[in-house]
Amino acid sequence: MKETTRQHYDAMLARIAFTYGVAIVTRQFAATPELEQRLQDKIVEQSNFLPLINVITVGDMEGQNILGSASGPASGRTDTSVEGKERTPKDLLGLDTYGYKCSQTDSDVYMKYATMDAWAKFKNLGERYARYVQQRIANDREIIGWNGVSIAADTDIATYPLMQDVNKGWLQYMRENKAANILTEGGTAGEIRIGAGGDFENLDHAVVDLAQGIPQFVKQGLVAMIGDELVGQEKSALYRAIAKKPTDKTLATASLTSFGGLPWMTPTNFPARGIVITSPDNLSIYVQEGTWRRHIKDKPEKNRVEDFNSRNEGYVVETPEKFVGVEFGNVKIPNAAGDAWE
Length: 342
Description:
Elements: H1 3-20, E1 29-30, H2 33-45, E2 54-58, E3 62-64, E4 99-101, E5 103-106, E6 109-112, H3 113-119, H4 125-147, H5 170-177, E7 182-183, E8 192-193, H6 203-211, E9 223-226, H7 228-241, H8 249-255, E10 258-259, E11 262-265, E12 275-278, E13 283-288, E14 293-299, E15 304-317, E16 324-326, E17 331-332
Parallel strand pairs: 2-13, 7-16, 8-17, 9-11
Antiparallel strand pairs: 1-14, 3-4, 5-15, 6-15, 9-12, 10-11, 12-16, 13-15, 14-15
């Protein structure tokens, strides 16, 4: 790399060393618990969705879920004047017990000398690079959270471009812990048809029906998370219906502010044909304390600087009873001609 770039690079290493409280960063080093939390906060800031959920530091690699919802009413009255009667406390978290398991996750990146040379004209090279790494980790967490199905010893990004083999995400957590809450098919084996003449006539119909699977006592704060392809289909059908009545456009737009009576959103990296109903704070990412490790290496053989990052993390649905959804890979919608499902 150029000499001016080298100076910026050395300054960046010195800043990282100071931040982590280590003498040298060109060999593996670990973050303190306090710094780990600050790193987590910085990563969360790079996402629109992660700030809505829980990113929690845990002490053990595996254990029972930390958060949860009340299992039912806790208020009442007992007539203690009656012989043999006494007040009996209720188990506030009496729902089924669920667990978590954190797995090593590597986020190894590199920056070419040419890129560093281009960035060297900026005084904040270190900050720019930190954001680059943080944004990538935040984006990866979202993709894994919605698409992860397994934990492979040796992951294959070519075969699994959505990192399906890096970790088990929230939908997989449900498949393994409360499969009945994930709809896999409707009237046609292996298919869930959404559209006129299908299992659900529209998204309102789908959301109303699916939400019935959530007990009343945990329905607080529910949001319908819906993929952009399904939303696009709904909008297209609506606008086609009002094409001859432009004055109805305002009413049509207003009708899209909710589905099935619930507010809705399309989280970043959410499956295009996915539907999930829960509250965002029912979703968590657990990161095991003391496992964030880093190693920065100058690699002249490749004309680049390599940055190795790893930590143990897992994806958790805190209260599976409060989560319902569809197997998005099985969702079918009408084709353009409206004469087949695809």
